[in-house]
Specification:
The structure holds 2 protein chains of 2 kinds.
Chain A lengths: L3 E9 L5 E10 L5 E4 L6 H8 L7 E6 L2 E2 L5 H10 E4 L13 H11 L6 H11 L16 H13 L5 E5 L7 H14 L4 E6 L2 H7 L2 E6 L2 E7 H6 L4 H9 L6
Parallel strand pairs in A: 3-8, 3-9, 6-7, 7-8
Antiparallel strand pairs in A: 1-2, 1-4, 4-5, 9-10
Chain B lengths: L4 E10 L2 E11 L4 E5 L6 H9 L7 E8 L2 E2 L5 H10 L1 E4 L3 H4 L6 H15 L6 H14 L5 H5 L8 H14 L4 E5 L7 H18 L2 E6 L2 H7 L2 E6 L2 E7 H6 L4 H17 L4
Parallel strand pairs in B: 3-8, 3-9, 6-7, 7-8
Antiparallel strand pairs in B: 1-2, 1-4, 4-5, 9-10
Helix pairs in contact in B: 4-5, 4-7, 5-7, 7-8
The chains are: A alpha/beta, B alpha/beta.
Amino acid sequence: MSLLDVRNLRYSYDGGEPVLRDVSFRVESGMNVGLVGESGSGKTTILRLLLGLARPDGGSIHFDGEPVRSGERSFMRSYRRSVQTVFQDPYSSLDPRQSVGNIIAEPLRSLGIPGPRREAVGQALDAVDLPRDVTSRYPHEFSGGQRQRIAIARAIVAHPRIVLADEPVSALDLSTRVRIIELLKSLSRSVTIVLVSHDLGVVAALCQKSVVLDRGRIVEAGETAQVLRHPEHSYTKKLLASVPRLPA
Amino acid sequence: MSALLSVQSLTVRTGALELVSKVSFEIEPGARMGLIGESGSGKSMTALAVMGLLPARVHSSGSVLLDGKEVVGAPERTLVPLRGNAAAVVFQEPLTALDPLMKVGRQVAEPLIRRARRNGEKLARREVRREVRRLFEEVSLPEPDRVSHSYPHQLSGGQRQRVALAMALSCRPKLLIADEPTTALDVTIQAEILGLLDRLVRDHGMALLFIGHDLPVVASVVDQMTVLRQGVAVEQGPVGQILREPRHAYTQELVDAARTFDAALEGSA
């Protein structure tokens, strides 16, 4: 059974032009998926729908075989435990007034997960290669890359099955970007990552599967290696040709 | 041939904080230099210092010779004729560089009229219109007449950057300074603007100072590179040589990072 099964999603903001037209894809456990597209492709809207922040005009989302019912509190509570998020901007996604320990423990509190929090937070910090004694410090004391590690620790502390990562490295410098991708790769042994990104290089480095979006439609989907080596759609070809690379 | 831009021991300070420390580089007429660095490396401060555009309470020392004139410590009346004629700048976000309340055609016309006046000429309105149209065609803006009558917010990010390039061209500068000109753009648009920039610089025989944080982007546009880190130039030289044999550990790290993603794209990660 697929972890996520997205079927024929349609969505428009306030009855305007549709921003998603018949979008379908699956996320299998252990296979990271990259949703690739530029501005206006609909990738962020898909993320909002996956998080239950908006309801689709048509189509459905199934998690582990069950339809996602965004209006139902008890369902959403268990869903949120299984599906966590990492956002683009490590400077605005962490509450500056909270200690790092409190920030990372937040999902445990809000989801009412019992058990020793200190140990769970410690394990999350181990996983993201931060020392355990950072818990008493505050976000402003950390660099962008370290903050993104804190955000990732928060995302994995409740042992979710999926981490939705929305452009998690695009605000970071190049060398930091590589290290965060390496970290996400090592974590994906125990959690499946759905990566939303405009950057094909980042997707190629992390995701076994890719879904290429253009103006609300899926133009190409499949194994990332296949998509990169034999892009079929003209948009995918253009996107691939546009990626800046080092001169040979 | 003497350098069009000669930066010697440029230091930029605000209070006790040194933002740029003793940076030196030269650009010959028609040559292309890249300044690469991450946030806080001082690359944008260097560009502003070259134009004499540093914000209040930020001070420069050392020497910046632009087209033979000293910029550091120069009064506005020396700097004004240099800006535009000697060098023009294109910034990261054209929406902040363009006046939101003025149609873009007029914004491009203004420097044209000023340049003519300085040369003791007077341009007829028809000539101005024709020249604006020609510039818009040169930067490959579709429907130049419609664009001319648009306000900046009615254009896409890529179109706005084309307008900004047209404005820079209208000054016929000897040096074009591009400060992260494609950072705010989608990757397909970035590729188009980089291609356009390359063509314009070549067609007009302009020199280029290209500032960026993205090594593959910078390396694809320039011939020479200066790597900045925390205000210090850690490495300098021809692009090919720096990519092949980076001498500084920081440059090595940047090159390795870029190669990691290139390799992933080739399917060998």
